[in-house]
């Protein structure tokens, strides 16, 4: 799923930023994977210390051999959960497209994983309060992953500021084929994401699989219906975004609702997220790739609507402790207790993530800096940060020299270039280019 996110996000940026977005999406597979093995798994699934699991209990995978989680080896469970941690961090990258220093993103994403994802995952999946005290329903991470990532993305976008030209210049996706490919890859991988959370090939996995299928399908239809009514045309970008919005919405609910309930959850996620992505223009924050509108809003829809449509028959299979503690959904005669618990936990994760993410981004801004200069942003983040271009479609030449010296016009009698050119010549021709 993480490479699929890279394609999904990579297609949505402009051509001069595609490589950077691929890099930003994929780097957590290195940084977060290492942190997960060192102490992250232990912070999430170690014995509770109140706010977080014991970070020393499974440090370096110590004590994992021979353990079990349900019916599977603890080592297998740790491997499975590492993918959750990696993709949660990768999702945040979409808010910082085109303008964040890559080194700053690497540091931010690592700190965000440790300070935002690991604690929230402990609350929702491990030994923490959302699962074990509140008995909220979140089967595969609507709060810990999607609301968490969306709130973090909003904070990062506010600290970063807007892209040059935001709101006045078109910033259309450069490759909608990549976007659809990434979305389809996400949908395919999401069956493992949700159904795999059953930790076995059993009835619970089948319920999660079916609900994941139809939840995403309902959201796709809901999104393009909104586009057709509002804009006159259903778009490929809208269909891809609708898929993802539905997958986000059904993630917390897939083991608590019936298939008809999944259609309701998915349909609402598609419709509401399609309208929510426009909020950034109304409120003036530049969430480049709509992480807030799709993941935070979609996660909120999926988590809260459980309080309305959670079916006691399905909860008895997927969430028996929550059914006993909080009852079923309001529409099934369960009262408002479950609805209140779901809303409280969703808002708590959202506020925590936003505040901590804002602090991380602000500190980095004041220390190492997080934003490219206007000149560098206009030149293109791929060239500035990585000395590469995704597509060799221009007359820009690449050398082993500095980026500034590589931005020169082709050699001509009036424009000396190459190793024999002086620094002044390079600066002059670079300005002309």
Automatic annotation (TrEMBL):
Keyword set includes Transcription: no
Region described as Disordered: spans on this chain: 410-433
Membrane topology, record value: Multi-pass membrane protein
The protein, known as: Ammonium transporter
Domain Ammonium transporter AmtB-like: 1-391
Record field: transmembrane: 70-93, 105-125, 145-166, 178-201, 207-226, 235-253, 259-279, 291-310, 339-364
PROSITE patterns the UniProt entry points to: AMMONIUM_TRANSP
Annotated organism of origin: Acidipropionibacterium acidipropionici
